[in-house]
C-alpha cells in the first residue's frame, strides 16, 4: 500500500521545483493543473493540485493506494463494520487516471480515500 497526500497549491511551477528537491526525484506525471510524485524510497503517492487560492488548510485530502480491486472491497467492508460512512466512486477519472475508490471522513472532517488505479487517462 501507498499513502496518498493531495496538496492544494497556487503556483504549480514553484511547488514542482520545491518538491523535486525535497524528494530528489522529478514528478512521474505533470499536467497543467497537477503533478504527481511516487518517491522511489517511500510508500507515498504525493500530488500537487492547483487551486486559484489557498488559505488555511492546504491539504485537499489523504489517501491510501491499494494494489487491486479486492483490496478496495476488503477495506470498505472492514471500515463499514466500524460504522464509518463511505462514499463510492467507481470507474472515476481522477488525477488523470481511471480509479475505483471509496471515501471516509475522520472526526475533524478530513477526507480519506482508499483507491485502486486501473490505468492512466
Automatic annotation (TrEMBL):
<dbReference type="InterPro" id="IPR004360">
    <property type="entry name" value="Glyas_Fos-R_dOase_dom"/>
</dbReference>
<feature type="domain" description="VOC">
    <location>
        <begin position="1"/>
        <end position="117"/>
    </location>
</feature>
<dbReference type="InterPro" id="IPR049789">
    <property type="entry name" value="ArsI/CadI-like"/>
</dbReference>
<dbReference type="Pfam" id="PF00903">
    <property type="entry name" value="Glyoxalase"/>
</dbReference>
<dbReference type="InterPro" id="IPR052393">
    <property type="entry name" value="Cadmium-induced_rsp"/>
</dbReference>
<protein>
    <submittedName>
        <fullName>ArsI/CadI family heavy metal resistance metalloenzyme</fullName>
    </submittedName>
</protein>
<dbReference type="InterPro" id="IPR037523">
    <property type="entry name" value="VOC_core"/>
</dbReference>
<dbReference type="InterPro" id="IPR029068">
    <property type="entry name" value="Glyas_Bleomycin-R_OHBP_Dase"/>
</dbReference>
Amino acid at each position: 500500500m501507498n499513502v496518498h497526500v493531495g496538496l492544494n497549491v497556487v503556483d504549480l511551477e514553484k511547488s514542482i521545483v520545491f518538491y523535486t528537491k525535497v524528494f530528489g526525484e522529478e514528478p512521474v506525471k505533470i499536467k497543467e493543473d497537477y503533478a504527481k510524485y511516487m518517491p522511489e524510497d517511500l510508500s507515498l503517492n504525493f500530488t500537487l493540485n492547483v487551486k486559484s487560492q489557498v488559505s488555511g488548510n492546504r491539504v485537499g485530502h489523504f489517501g491510501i493506494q491499494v494494489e487491486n480491486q479486492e483490496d478496495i472491497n476488503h477495506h470498505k467492508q472492514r471500515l463499514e463494520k466500524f460504522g464509518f460512512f463511505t462514499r463510492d466512486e467507481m470507474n472515476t477519472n481522477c488525477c488523470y487516471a481511471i480509479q475505483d475508490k471509496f471515501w471516509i471522513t475522520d472526526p475533524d472532517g478530513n477526507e480519506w480515500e482508499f483507491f485502486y488505479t486501473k490505468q492512466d487517462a
